[in-house]
Amino acid sequence: MKRAVLLSALGALFLLCLLPLFNSAYALRIGTFACMYAIMAVSWTVIGGFAGYPSFATAAFFGFGAYCGGVLITRGWPLYAAVGAAGALAFVGALLLGVILLRLRGHYFAIGSLAVAEVLREMTNTATDLTGGGMGLNIPLKVAASGGVMGEASFFFWAMWALLVLCFVVVCIIQQSKLGFGLVCIKQNESAADMIGVNATLYKSSAFAFSGVFVAMAGVLYAGWVHYIEPPDVYDILFAVKPIVMALLGGLGSPAGALLGAFVFLGIEEAVWRNYLQIHSGILGLLVLVLLLFLPNGLMSLARRLRGAGVRHG
Predict the structure, then answer these.
(1) pTM
(2) Range with the lowest mean pLDDT among 67-76, 175-184, 234-243, 279-288?
(3) Of 93-97, 279-283, 290-294, which has the strongest mean pLDDT?
(4) Disulfide check for 82: which of 72, 97, 257, 264 has CB 3.0–4.6 Å away?
(5) Tell me, what DSSP letter sits at residue 137?
(6) Which fold has domain 2-313?
(7) 154 close to 28: Cβ distance less than 8 angstroms
């Protein structure tokens, strides 16, 4: 079953590569958002799926990356350097913050991680000279000028796709590594994990850092893509909630499931938004609730049911 989910995720990544063939700005926009959502969901899996800590800090990482990269780009940094710098700063910052924040557990940690985004939002609003404050930040980035609008759309699609592939590979390596084993032990029984030699503080902080580094890098690409960012946009609380929902839809603890869950969620979101604009938030929430109720283990439980049905009919 896990192999089937992994093959499905790899197939979905391959199908995304075909979007540029449609020569449609809309298709590239959807593909770019699909990759961005998947980066958030797969990254969240490290701290939420492997370690079992319900982190709501994704919005904080995304907003930090967007503004860090945006400020650097406005000061003449090339995009790739801004992406690398934002990722490095997010990793180090999350590693240090995790040492303090991960002393909390359960809903206390969830509230604490959610508060990080609000603190960063207020700091962004206050640092007017650096970030533009509540007026937002214009990002004069020009890429693929010879290709016009389609050239720029293709550039950011491939950049986000490449970042997703890198994120997915790294998280899969973590899952099979000593770090991944230690995180699973912490999830099952943190006290017992300490007794067998697992450095819980280091492992949890590392997981928190890995859950933020790629999200921050995606934030830089998003900022360069849209050319203008403001605090309510990049620190949106929905960026803290959506990755959790997407991971649950795909199957908690599975990077491949989280990737597929992100694509399914975006498909549902886009269909609902196009057909029920006025009440799309309510309908989207209801659909997600129904899916989670009937598929408690996400797409992995659906695969199990289909396999069971095949056995019975056979």
Answers:
(1) 0.91
(2) 279-288
(3) 93-97
(4) 72
(5) E
(6) ABC transporter involved in vitamin B12 uptake, BtuC (1.10.3470)
(7) yes
